[in-house]
Amino acid sequence: MKQKKYMMSEGLAFSEEKDMKRLSDLTRKGWVLESFAFMGYTLKKAEPQKLIYSIDYHDVGEESFAEYIEIFEAAGWEHVCSSQGMHIFSADPGTSPIYSDQFTMSEKYKRSEKDVRNATCTLSFLTLLSFTLHYVTGLSNWVPLVFLIVTFPFLMTYAATKARTLGKWGKSV
Question: Which residues cross the membrane (predicted)?
Answer without folding.
Answer: 116-136, 142-161
